[in-house]
Amino acid sequence: MSETNPAATAPVTADAAPHRYTAAMAAEIEARWQDFWDAEGTYAAPNPKGDLAGDPELVARPKKFIMDMFPYPSGAGLHVGHPLGYIATDVFARFQRMTGHNVLHTLGFDAFGLPAEQYAVQTGTHPRVSTEANIENMRSQLRRLGLGHDNRRSFATIDPEYYKWTQWIFLQIFNSWYDDEARKARPISELVAQFESGERAVPGGRSWSELTEGERADVLGEYRLAYASDAPVNWCPGLGTVLANEEVTADGRSERGNFPVFKSKLRQWNMRITAYADRLLDDLDELDWPEAIKLQQRNWIGRSEGARVDFPIDGENITVFTTRPDTLFGATYMVLAPEHPLVEKFTPAAWPEGTHDAWTGGHATPTEAVAAYRAQAAAKSDVERQAEAKDKTGVFVGAYATNPVNGERVPVFIADYVLMGYGTGAIMAVPAHDTRDFEFARAFELPISCVVEPTDGRGTDTSTWDEAFASYDAKIVNSSGADVSLDGLGVVEAKARVTEWLERSGTGRGTVNFRLRDWLFSRQRYWGEPFPIVYDEDGVAHALPESMLPLELPEVEDYSPRTFDPDDADTRPETPLSRNEDWVHVTLDLGDGRGPRKYRRETNTMPNWAGSCWYELRYLDPHNGEQLVDPEIEQYWMGPREGLPHGGVDLYVGGAEHAVLHLLYARFWSKVLFDLGHVSSAEPFHKLFNQGMIQAYVYRDARGIAVPAAEVEERDGAYFYQGEKVSRLLGKMGKSLKNAVTPDEICAEYGADTLRLYEMAMGPLDVSRPWDTRAVVGQFRLLQRLWRNVVDETTGDVTVVDAEPDEDTLRALHKAIDGVRQDLEGMRFNTAIAKVTELNNHLTKVGGPVPRTVAERLVLLVAPLAPHVAEELWRKLGHPDSVVHQDFPVADPAYVVDETVTCVVQIKGKVKARLEVSPSVSDEDLEKAALADEKVVAALGGAGIRKVIVRAPKLVNIVPA
């Protein structure tokens, strides 16, 4: 560390107290120490090797990798709610450094995605220009907060040297398949070798050598972990792009822009995340995550056990997945999702004889009915389609399937309450025992057969029922056929018996199903990572060789997606990249021995989630241009160790809203990279902490329009803006709600250390809390009192003395040390600040010069929370080195334990006396002392004692005879 003394350059202002801690002094101190930290590399975390290798002594310490969730560089900049988590991780990281750890704490920027692209479209500014300007603004705002980041490791996802490796990882996934027997990903070349040797049969029965290149590509596409397919997608004409399910609101509109979203079939890239469903579930148990987040992931993955059953129809099968195969005898009709690929195949030209009028939807032919209903369903979101309260709609496709257990013909419908994204996109409807099926059957006059005996006394005559009977604790009835009988069995026994029969008869099999769907990975946008994929003249996809990475985004004249009439579901995307013909159509030598050939590039881009799926790895080795990450460095920071069986980041802090998006996707990428041997950590983030939200009051006028919160006046419990009464409601903070407070404002008025203390003192970190600018001054005054306990405000001299503290001060000091240490370790920053305040107030109350040993330890306690003022005071106290790497104080146990504690003595439950006793007093001695106390003797009045209950050292309860 440098011996430079930045405190020597502190200015002196000419007022009554020229050395008082003021906002101006805070600003000067903070800027000076921030410059010092940058110049000295104070927060540099050395790697065990490579270009970031540094101090061997630091590397030898236990390590701690602390991360915040990637910020997106918004043009609006930060408001005070944004840095809550960043300040918290900074406090925790500083504490870890002071307790002997080599700490890696840095921050990059998640900079691809739709917001930057839309801003560019609106302003005519290239997305890179606006995004880089936003990043610089955010860097400046974050620096002002005194965050101790290792800036050598920072990057943005839009840096070509970063997304080179995003593209490289995509190729690893594309060139891999999931081996169910080995339960891991393996290189696709190993699968090809199995097909070539005959070890694995080629689907369709031909030999591998007989297949054309296109046919081989199709076969491998059924196995690859990244694959292109024609699939139902969420098409948003108003944005000109396809959206993931998570980007569509419950009412079927785009989360961004609020445009209608339609179901459409397009060729898209997908990630086969479903292959990892079991591992994603199982490994949750080993992670130190909030149970609420684990539950969300478990529900999203949605594991369920049941059976797949084949219903024959016109020489083929409709396959359904059911968790209740025991109710097969009660299946009286079938329902397919409107998008099901077999619908058109089974739809005849005319209605079969005897078709109910209620089944046709008023259409002359099945073809017309199906087409009209499909258009109607495409305009609804999945949430809308599954809403329990809505009327059930659907149409008969004009065909009948056969129930395999009893041979009965069952009509086949399409209805929007069945989704293509769950199970097989088809259900066997058992209306007697499923609420939705019951409502549908009543609406369409379909038969309802009871096969689970009601336990509520209603009987088995379904014509008298008002609702379905659903139970797992009842007997099966009316369920006997020629080959199998379930009558009289319980549900569990019946499920086992019918599943065994299905497998024996070849009409089904027991299986596990998941709610989780493969991850849609294509976007029809400009501002995203280009796919490192080209297509030959036969349409076969080829991976670019690593030597051609990064494939950089080309310049295009118009980088906005082509948008369409938001209500026109029949449109198709036109990608911005497709407009650069010179980039799209290329002649390349892919190094496969075929020489130069003509290719067409993929013109979709990756979703904004891609860059954040692996960024924790880039922090480890950010300048490595030869490999994703050096194995030794990755093992050092993220490898498995005691308490972390799957490895991962030691602490990851961010919002709970990413539970089933970023967190699930990142886990999937980690597992693929682990399987392929690129990393030692099978999980990206071992410990997850979700911080709460800083909220703010939103004030609205009579029209419901938000008015500037800073200009609202409170009078007699009511609120007024420009003389008109307005309403007040606690909500989010944001520019659009006119209630945003920027950190720059608070730093200018009080200083960054005050802002840090206020945000950490507002309440528990995981709880949302309202912002109150008026309350900030409380933490500013704490810093002023701290300053006065060390520095004379008139002369600027240090006032501490080399004297021994008294007994009370020693006890106050060591109790504070013990409490603050525990609180910082547990991320209870609000209570840590309370304990620091209590100690500081004790010193103020005692008066006189503060003993040096107490002042120095107090400064060290404050250092993680208010680092600038701590650095300044530490230097003024005569220490040449930064406070950042000083040892955190350790409490003396002798002073932490109270000399005496108060014991309450009760008679008949009422307090009659209080005794000051030793904390280690025995039950016997405490009972004697209580019975001998004169107040207790007087209260008993000579009465006998039936029982004495002793809870040493704090309670004695006497029960008179």
What's the structural blueprint in terms of helices and strands?
Elements: H1 23-40, H2 56-59, E1 63-68, H3 84-98, E2 102-105, H4 114-123, H5 127-144, H6 160-174, E3 176-179, E4 184-187, H7 188-197, H8 213-221, E5 226-236, E6 241-243, E7 262-271, H9 277-282, H10 291-301, E8 303-313, E9 316-322, E10 333-336, H11 343-346, H12 366-378, H13 382-385, E11 395-402, E12 409-414, E13 426-429, H14 435-443, H15 491-505, E14 508-514, E15 519-520, E16 533-535, E17 541-543, H16 581-584, E18 585-588, E19 597-601, H17 615-620, H18 631-638, E20 651-654, H19 662-675, E21 688-690, E22 694-700, E23 706-707, E24 713-715, E25 718-721, E26 724-731, H20 743-749, H21 752-761, E27 769-770, H22 777-788, H23 807-825, H24 829-846, H25 852-862, H26 867-876, H27 893-896, E28 901-907, E29 910-917, H28 923-932, H29 934-940, E30 945-951, E31 955-960
Parallel strand pairs: 1-2, 1-20, 10-12, 20-21, 22-27, 28-31
Antiparallel strand pairs: 3-4, 5-6, 5-7, 7-15, 8-9, 8-14, 10-13, 11-12, 16-17, 16-19, 18-19, 22-23, 22-26, 24-25, 25-26, 28-29, 30-31
